[in-house]
Design brief:
The chain is an alpha/beta fold. Helix content is about 40%, strand content about 20%. The chain contains six helices and seven strands. Strands 3, 4, 5, 6 and 7 form a five-stranded parallel sheet that branches. A two-stranded antiparallel sheet has the order 1-2. Helix 3 links the parallel strand 3 and strand 4. Helix 4 packs parallel to helix 5.
Length: about 170
């Protein structure tokens, strides 16, 4: 755990270019560590290549989505449901996604979360999936169509097939 936290802080210090905040939240069965920084997401010099080659960029803010206007592949909007490293907080997700949906030249390809321990901690993963399902219901109520939802990586496909949403990330 010490090395994981050190890596998170080192990456934030290297790429964020500003203030970095580390949040540790210890629960009964799980500890959540989050690093909040002002990093650029995808660095500007890589954005053009993503747009030109039709890759789907993963974003978690309106500002990041603006960098991928006119990308024919669209953007994947990611929500942090427990990883603490990638995605917008669940409290801010619906508002931010609604703002992104208003951008005339940004297509939302998908909405996702990441399951960091799908192959190690089934109770934590089930809690994440349950929470994400609730978020997805709210999102689909406000923004009903035009995008896919995904959460399951390879380990998740094997262990949690009942929570597959629209697409999976096997491989």
């Amino acid at each position: 755990m010490e090395r994981v936290i050190a890596n998170l802080v080192e990456n934030a210090a290297r790429y964020a270019g500003g203030a970095t905040r580390v949040i540790v939240d210890a629960g009964h069965y799980v500890a959540r560590v989050a690093v909040d920084d002002e990093g650029p997401g995808v660095v500007p010099e890589e954005r053009e290549a993503i747009n030109n080659h039709g890759f789907i960029a993963t974003v978690s803010s309106w500002e990041e989505a603006c960098a991928f206007e006119r990308n024919p592949a669209g953007v994947n909007f990611t929500i942090d449901t427990g990883m603490g490293r990638m995605g917008i907080t669940d409290d801010d997700a619906l508002g931010e996604l609604t703002a992104i949906a208003q951008l005339p030249n940004v297509r939302i390809h998908s909405v996702s979360t990441h399951l960091p321990s799908a192959d190690e901690d089934s109770a934590f993963t089930r809690a994440q999936l349950s929470h994400f399902s609730e978020l997805v219901a709210s999102i689909r109520s406000a923004l009903p169509s035009g995008y896919k939802v995904h959460a399951l990586p390879s380990a998740g496909v094997l262990a949690f097939a009942d929570s597959s949403f629209d697409i999976v990330r096997a491989g």
